[in-house]
């Protein structure tokens, strides 16, 4: 018989008390949600305990449906809380909101659009300072953090990693050169959109225009510095703000910068009238400042282009043309939205 989800409560590390959907079998609750994805490795969206190993492990279970204590554990290599539930709460809340953002706003079910369940393995490795999407399990592995990070389960990092799953299931953007930068940018964008959706309560059918910070991973960094600044990528000291023919030589986490900035301009606009904020192909535009179309429309446009038009070798020039095409299909040729796409790309030196 079909498993029924029940409403649980989680004490998260970064977001206070959060709602969780779990499964009750007999008198045991499991961190599994068959209402968000079917099949997969565990018969529904799930959170597992890798218990400091490198394989997923088994699904969290408990006799109580209140999970975690919201405390921060495992830093600097200490493994005193190997089975701590707080990391699992972070993961489940992030994954639920990633699912709901794409399902409720875009009608896209799970990562592949076909509602195949995915999972996150928490407590991967020891003092592990990374989180990643693994295309072989179609799941995410998440570290507890070591010298640089606390538990890597912030809402935007989970949205980012699951964004890799969406890219993997659709365009398959190759993870090097310009396509790799776009792959990374698509994940950074997804992370911010999930953050905005979750912070507004995780319901509704649009992406709120506020609530995200336009920085990737600010919550997890021990030094308080985000990994990336979408609104001005150069703040990290390594990412360019604009496209040039040499960005293809950069690490993909830097060549993502210009497209992140494009998306920020498209969504939020820019009130700058300083020519130094824009790049050559933009400087004949009037006025220099530009009006954003809001995160909801911007993400609808980006998502349509990325999932239905991009190919594995899409580069910046191709992305610009396809994002423009998506805007024209959604909002009309010559629409304010399509003009905003042209301006946002011109501002990072792509197209006219
Ligand atoms: N956290 C990294 C990322 O998703 C993992 C990697 O190096 N690919 O970009
Ligand atoms: Zn990434």
TrEMBL record:
The molecular function GO annotations come to: metal ion binding; metalloendopeptidase activity
- What keywords does the record list, in alphabetical order? Hydrolase, Metal-binding, Metalloprotease, Protease, Signal, Zinc
Query: Superkingdom, according to UniProt?
Result: Bacteria
Where does the record place the catalytic residues?
161, 253
Segments forming domain Peptidase M4:
8-168
User: Peptidase M4 C-terminal domain spans which residues?
Assistant: 171-350
Q: Name one GO biological process term.
A: proteolysis
- Identify its protein family: Belongs to the peptidase M4 family.
Q: What is this protein called?
A: M4 family peptidase
Q: Which organism is it from?
A: Janthinobacterium violaceinigrum
Q: Which residues of the full protein are shown?
A: 238 to 589 of 843
